[in-house]
Design a protein that fits this description.
The protein is α/β, with parallel strands linked by helices. The chain is 40% helix and 16% strand. α5 packs parallel to α6. The chain starts with a strand and ends in a 7-residue tail after the last helix.
Length: 217
């Protein structure tokens, strides 16, 4: 897990009373980390990353970190790759609380904390990338299933820092020309539904909305 704090380089981004003016991210994957770092770079955001290396943590531990950060941050984004939750829920012994049930309990707690924004990507961040090129047409249980359709558009895609941060052609820069169209198309976005947890979803658009990075017409 990593904690990524950012601050808008804007005089209008004022520190609220009794809270910090930074924005924090809690994620458990390197791809999310690299993408967020690139978002900061291209959208003129100032970042301070710690710890330097992500460490896997259980859902409850991630939630506890997000809760702690919410006391000193203006907004906390908790980003979840849902494929692991689905897999572990299927493998959970009968009669025990499943990871899906635990996640729903924690999400309900987040609703009472207006500073924490839960972001679900199902199955993973790459679903968000795919939506830049085509409407959601099906669900994918794993990244492996999603890899082939994604590579129709990003033929050389790799889950490596070298690929994500390729000089003069990083993944954020490559996707940005399609980003405004994607963010404006509400039919391609949506909200995670616990009644239909298998449905493909990418809620990364919440970041752009909360940070005021969506152009209003």
């Amino acid at each position: 897990m990593l904690i990524l704090r950012i601050m808008r380089k804007s005089e209008n981004f004022q520190k609220p009373k009794g809270a910090g003016s930074d924005i924090s991210f809690v994620v458990d994957g390197k791809c999310e980390r690299w993408y967020i770092e690139l978002l900061h770079k291209h959208e003129n955001l100032k970042s301070n990353l710690k710890p330097k290396l992500p460490q896997k943590k259980k859902l409850k531990e991630q939630f506890d970190f997000a809760l702690k950060l919410s006391k000193e941050s203006k907004k906390v984004f908790w980003i979840i790759d849902f494929d692991t939750i689905i897999k572990e829920t299927r493998e959970a012994p009968k009669g025990t609380k499943t990871p899906l049930q635990e996640f729903q309990r924690l999400c309900n707690k987040c609703k009472s904390n207006k500073k924490i924004v839960v972001i679900v990507n199902n199955p993973c961040l790459e679903y968000w990338f795919l939506l830049h090129f085509e409407p959601a047409s099906k669900s994918f249980a794993t990244y492996k299933q999603l890899e082939k359709p994604l590579k129709k558009y990003l033929q050389d895609y790799e889950k490596t820092e070298k690929y994500y941060k390729k000089p003069n052609n990083d993944i954020y820069k490559r996707l940005k020309p399609k980003l405004s169209i994607l963010l404006a198309d509400s039919n391609r976005l949506g909200e995670f539904d616990f009644e239909n947890p298998q449905t493909g979803i990418a809620e990364m658009h919440k970041i752009f909305s909360e940070l005021g990075l969506i152009e209003r017409k």
